[in-house]
Amino acid sequence: MRTVHTIKELRAVIRSYRNQGKRVGLVPTMGNLHEGHLALIRRAREASDVVVTSIFVNPMQFGAGEDLEAYPRTLAEDQRKLEQEGNALLFAPTVREIYSAGLALQTQVVVPEVSEGHCGASRPGHFTGVATVVTMLFNMVQPDVAVFGEKDYQQLAVIRKMTRDLFMPVDVIGLPTIREADGLAMSSRNGYLSADERRKAPAIHRVMTETGAALAGGSDDFAGLEASARENLATEGFRPDYFNIVNSFTLKPAEPGDRELTILAAAFLGTTRLIDNLSIVR
Ligand code: PAF
């Protein structure tokens, strides 16, 4: 596997793939790769001839006081894992390579509506940072397909809308969340949890599953279910950020006629913010 750090090198390698008639798959990541990321790479391999993975801890999507500095950076270990998965090319640029004029002067991609609410409300500017860097990566790599995890449900909705609205010639594939044996969604941020917090963490999935069962059973008492889920999470030691039952397509509050519902949740355990989601068809 080859690793490149500059856009110039990246473009030269991509050009050689194109000259060989290869279909290119892209997996954008922030590194600290776990089984969830490796599943994305396997899916990209199925859908393309060569997989390009990017590792870039994107400062534009972190707010003041968030974990930009603390975010785990494990390049050598990530390279080893990518090599084993048959990833063809790793693009690992510096912040200066991506934002050469500085963040303040960066052209931004704003995706309305679907970026609002949920994580968009708790992390102002986050999805603009995500949409901007993903646009840049799409333009640099010009992939045929790009694979993202459904764990970041709102992020995936933002990227799908952006791709559609801006006529980007990329097929966006979403992959179901990969979970630990006890139900906790895999995330690089799980590494921040103390042993005690790690024991409590699966409760977020458990509470969502209980709420999902009530929804599947026909309950339309969305506000009541959300309130009792927040209470249950607090009892389990979480500080809930949001617990919202939404229409799976619009991400707007669920209405009684909706058949496809998604529960979107974010909650803190100590200083670690965990997110998860669960979709129900009824
Ligand atoms: O999901 C992530 O890891 C990031 O938000 C992404 C898509 C790589 C953009 O920085």
From TrEMBL:
Keywords: ATP-binding, Cytoplasm, Ligase, Nucleotide-binding, Pantothenate biosynthesis. SUPFAM superfamilies: Nucleotidylyl transferase. It comes from the Bacteria. This is Pantothenate synthetase. InterPro entries: Pantoate_ligase, Pantoate_ligase_C, Rossmann-like_a/b/a_fold. It is an enzyme of class 6 (ligase). It comes from Marinobacter daqiaonensis. CDD domains: PanC (cd00560). (R)-pantoate binds at residues 61, 155.
